[in-house]
Design a protein that fits this description.
503 residues, alpha+beta, Arc Repressor Mutant, subunit A, 3 domains, four-stranded mixed β-sheet, two-stranded antiparallel ribbon, 8 strands, 6% strand
Length: 503
């Protein structure tokens, strides 16, 4: 039996414009240019460049952080007008003056000291042309005298080598690939014979199936008659597990070595390359370049914050679209087809204005958030001393900026700031609080720094255990448990005491 009931519900739904604004806020400066280009392609009413008649010399000076953070943010929903019903045409087309007489410049992008010299931007940056890792291997393959099927096997093997230089795929699986893809029937022994030839290629160690084989291949290319090389080969071949776990006493006893002999062999092994493919100049690995979103300059003890606007080109509403609206507004005979075209133009202009306002709001939000972080961590930005970092979480900055925690999270995600101490991610400045014996709250990053200093100062022949490090931190007044020390040590990328041991 069907029943109909009326009910009222209060729901929170984000408009498409609000969703786009949040996504735009999360985009780092390095990718902002690409996002703007996408918008330029889909919206013909949006153009790149300053409006005609604007004089760059009369534009405002650099915005200070305070000015940017005090500006009133506009609701992007209010800037977008939609007319969906036919009977709303006349109302929607009553006042078009604001559409074609609005010549405001996108003031987030005023020409100021934040922008590099135009001549500098026009310079052609030379790009190094290098042979990729796989092209380098294929060039060496051409020097081998192989039959047609052997060539296919070798090519399949090279294609199976990963970017570190290893073949991690089983040879029987490669045999299946050859049968199904190349119509080549090859035994595992035939494939291994070709692999042995590839393992003679440069760089040394390429084509290995594991780390042990990689190190042995490199030692094989050295002078086997050299006693040091011979000893290093035996250690890897017979005591590889003991070497990786740094059981040096066991190795010394097994081979009846003096301390000096063992030390020389270990030093030789440590000079070998565990990733022969990773260091090739033309490796296929794509390099990532960090573009800082902010810059902090110490001007005689006064910190100045600027926003990098390099990848945000000047945007304006198309003058052609404005002209079409002006012509329609002054015309006497207005057909239905013209009205439909004007409604399309209006929607595109609204969308262009919203996007320009969204970029402006993005810049203001970024500046306001980074300004709050700068004021909160002022002592650190002055000195660069990690012990001056205060405990700071997203909520602290959200309360200062009167923003939602999710907004602060989006701003700090994938964003970087350039300081005189280096380029750092914004996430670096957020850390939890810990209490000392005196009840003072300190940053967990401060504790990590002290822990790292303790480990760096230890005697590497007798490295300190986590319990000893815990006791040392407790002596310094930091109430911390051993499991927390182990957690911080792992976060710093430092191994346990046994693996830190050196001869």
């Amino acid at each position: 039996m069907l029943n109909q009931n009326l009910s009222q519900k209060l729901l929170q739904k984000l408009s498409p414009q609000q969703i786009q604004l949040m996504k735009l806020l999360q985009v780092p400066t390095a990718q902002l240019e690409e996002r703007i280009q996408e918008e330029l392609e889909v919206n013909p009413a949006l153009e790149e460049g300053l409006d005609k008649g604007d004089d760059a010399d009369e534009l405002a000076e650099v915005k200070t952080v305070t000015e940017a953070s005090d500006e009133k943010e506009e609701n992007p929903q209010e800037t977008v007008q939609e007319v969906n019903e036919e009977n709303a045409w006349e109302d929607g087309l009553d006042d078009l003056t604001s559409y074609y007489e609005d010549d405001d410049v996108a003031d987030y992008k005023l020409k100021d000291n934040n922008y590099p010299d135009p001549d500098e931007e026009d310079r052609v940056i030379p790009v190094a042309v290098q042979t990729s890792f796989y092209e380098y291997l294929e060039t060496q393959l051409q020097e081998l005298d192989l039959e047609e099927d052997e060539q296919k096997i070798a090519a399949q093997l090279i294609g199976s080598i990963d970017e570190d230089g290893y073949i991690r795929r089983a040879l029987d699986a490669i045999a299946d690939d050859l049968a199904f893809q190349q119509n080549v029937i090859a035994s595992q022994e035939q494939i291994e014979a070709i692999l042995e030839k590839i393992q003679l290629f440069e760089p040394a160690g390429v084509g290995a199936r594991d780390l042990k084989e990689c190190l042995l291949l490199q030692l094989n290319k050295m002078k086997p008659s050299d006693p040091g090389v011979s000893l290093a080969y035996r250690i890897i071949d017979e005591q590889f597990d003991g070497f990786t776990k740094k059981h040096y006493e066991k190795i010394q006893k097994e081979f009846n070595l003096t301390n000096e002999e063992l030390k020389e062999a270990i030093e030789l092994i440590l000079k070998l390359n565990p990733k022969p493919g990773g260091n090739h100049g033309g490796s296929a690995i794509k390099q990532q370049y960090i573009v800082p979103d902010f810059q902090i300059i110490n001007n005689n003890g006064k910190l100045e914050l600027t926003l990098n606007g390099r990848n945000a080109p000047d945007l304006r509403v198309s003058s052609d679209f404005k002209s079409m609206l002006r012509d329609y507004d002054v015309s006497k005979n207005k057909t239905k087809e013209q009205k439909e075209a004007v409604m399309f133009i209006k929607q595109k202009i609204d969308s262009a204005k919203w996007f320009i306002d969204a970029i402006k709001q993005r810049q203001n939000t970024l500046l306001g958030t980074m300004s709050a972080i700068l004021k909160y961590q002022y002592e650190y930005f002055l000195t660069g001393d990690e012990t001056n970092l205060k405990p700071m979480i997203l909520k602290d900055i959200a309360e200062i900026t009167q923003q939602d925690i999710s907004t602060v999270s989006r701003v700090s995600s994938s964003k970087y700031v350039q300081t005189e101490f280096g380029i750092m991610p914004l996430k670096y400045f957020f850390s939890e609080a810990m209490s000392t014996d005196s009840g003072e709250e300190v940053s967990s990053r401060e504790v990590k720094k002290i822990l790292q200093d303790l480990i760096e100062a230890e005697d590497k022949s007798k490295p300190w255990s986590d319990q000893y490090l815990t006791d040392e931190l407790n002596k310094k007044g930091y109430n911390i448990a051993r499991r927390t020390v182990a957690k911080y040590r792992e976060m710093l990328g430092l191994p346990v005491a046994r693996l830190r041991k050196e001869l």
